[in-house]
From TrEMBL:
<keyword id="KW-0238">DNA-binding</keyword>
<keyword id="KW-0234">DNA repair</keyword>
<keyword id="KW-0460">Magnesium</keyword>
<dbReference type="InterPro" id="IPR043128">
    <property type="entry name" value="Rev_trsase/Diguanyl_cyclase"/>
</dbReference>
<keyword id="KW-0963">Cytoplasm</keyword>
<dbReference type="InterPro" id="IPR001126">
    <property type="entry name" value="UmuC"/>
</dbReference>
<keyword id="KW-0235">DNA replication</keyword>
<dbReference type="GO" id="GO:0003887">
    <property type="term" value="F:DNA-directed DNA polymerase activity"/>
</dbReference>
<keyword id="KW-0227">DNA damage</keyword>
<keyword id="KW-0479">Metal-binding</keyword>
<feature type="site" description="Substrate discrimination">
    <location>
        <position position="28"/>
    </location>
</feature>
<dbReference type="GO" id="GO:0003684">
    <property type="term" value="F:damaged DNA binding"/>
</dbReference>
<keyword id="KW-0548">Nucleotidyltransferase</keyword>
<keyword id="KW-0808">Transferase</keyword>
<feature type="active site">
    <location>
        <position position="122"/>
    </location>
</feature>
<dbReference type="InterPro" id="IPR036775">
    <property type="entry name" value="DNA_pol_Y-fam_lit_finger_sf"/>
</dbReference>
<feature type="binding site">
    <location>
        <position position="23"/>
    </location>
    <ligand>
        <name>Mg(2+)</name>
    </ligand>
</feature>
Length: 383
């Protein structure tokens, strides 16, 4: 294959591996319903009730009944309340959710040590070689799903395939409490049938661009050459070119360490009202700290980014004495940085919040202060 002045061989997919992507179903909300049976068959939203926060707050997640009303994660609690006034709002307990996540991990460890946690409620498992000497990846998926259900009274959905990308997409295919397997022989058909928005990395803002190029599904994507995809989508285009061909040989990474977590937003209408700027900082900080807590991490360093209408950009950082994972601690630092360094004489076109110096308290020795072939061959015999 030739790209620009370079010629290289297209890599071949490694179809020998057996990868699971386990995704808990509405994890936080399901724990609350499990522990309080009176909530069964009622819409449950994990967020502070907007009447208690002056209209502030973001939905962390909700159960499937609440989703029938149009509620979803990252929605404002006020909007969720308008969609379903009878919903039960629960603040949630991240420390408790971490404990349950560790119980789930203990189940995974019965089958393999090759585990890559993505968050408290999802992980990749490589079961190519496993502790029970089971050749069938599908059978292992059923065993894990059954044990989580029977021991923890929680459900999960599992994608089974030969690479992480396909396994992750497959886990979302039959939710809740489903298992979807995509063998190497089925991968091309599976990927080409997917709508373009089902490819991880394709965000809401980029979908219209794909549509403008006549790319509505995996089949359309497959027909594009590498030059075109890189020209229009850069690094993402390069990645998608191979992924739609079933090529994604990244290993399940047991030492998945993040150096930073950040969010930023560009405004088509510039901001010059301090109250609106603070609201946007609150939303960004909530999103960042939610990710920190979901990953079970701690931070002590916050950075804000401000870009003005004339493209002047400033970044300012502040480090706390103790490590923390709470939104309250983070937003107080963000507001302090804005008050010290923000300039209302200029309109704001972009705001960003990021955290660094991330630590996992379970693997750190530091004392921390926490404020909060054939199908048969590949599958193996299941008899």
């Amino acid at each position: 294959m030739k790209y620009g002045l370079l010629t290289f061989e297209e890599p071949n997919p490694d179809t020998t591996r057996k990868i699971l992507h386990v995704d808990m179903d509405a994890f936080y909300a399901s724990i609350e319903v499990r522990d309080n049976p009176s909530l069964k068959n009622r819409p449950v939203v994990i967020a502070k009730h907007p009447n208690l926060t002056g209209g502030r707050g973001i939905v962390a997640t909700c159960n499937y009944i609440a989703r029938q009303y149009g509620i979803h994660s990252a929605m404002s609690a006020v909007e969720a309340y308008k969609l379903c006034p009878k919903a039960i709002f629960i603040q949630g307990n991240m420390d408790y959710y971490r404990e349950v996540s560790q119980q789930i991990r203990a189940i995974f460890l019965k089958y393999t040590d090759v585990i890559e946690p993505l968050s408290l409620d999802e992980a990749y498992l490589d079961v190519t070689v496993n502790k029970i000497n089971e050749a069938s990846a599908l059978k292992i998926a059923h065993l894990i799903q059954k044990e989580i259900d029977e021991t923890l009274s929680l459900t999960c959905s599992i994608g089974v395939s030969y690479n992480k990308f396909i396994a992750k997409i497959a886990s979302d295919y039959h939710k809740p409490h489903g298992i979807t397997i995509v063998t190497p022989q089925e991968a091309t058909k599976f990927l080409q049938a997917l709508p373009i928005d089902k490819f991880y990395g394709v965000g809401v803002k980029s979908i219209p661009h794909f549509h403008e190029l006549g790319i509505f599904n995996g089949k359309d994507l497959y027909q594009q050459d590498l030059d075109t995809l890189i020209k229009h989508f850069g690094k993402m285009g390069y990645s998608l070119y191979f992924k739609v061909r079933g090529i994604h040989n990244a290993a399940v990474n047991q030492q998945r360490d993040r150096k930073s977590i950040g969010r930023e937003r560009t405004f088509t209408q510039f901001l010059n009202d301090e109250e609106k700027i603070i609201v946007q900082f609150e939303k960004l900080t909530h999103s960042v700290m939610k990710k920190v807590r979901v990953l079970g991490l701690l931070t002590n360093s916050i950075t804000v980014k401000i870009r003005y209408g004339n493209f002047e950009t400033i970044t300012r950082q502040m480090q706390a004495e103790d490590y923390f994972d709470s939104y309250e601690e983070a937003i107080s630092i963000v507001k302090e940085l804005w008050l010290k360094h923000g300039n209302l004489d200029q309109e704001v076109r972009l705001l960003g919040v990021s955290v660094s110096n991330l630590l996992n308290p379970e693997t750190s020795a530091i004392q921390l202060t926490i404020h909060e072939g054939s199908v048969d061959e590949w599958l193996g015999s299941s008899n």
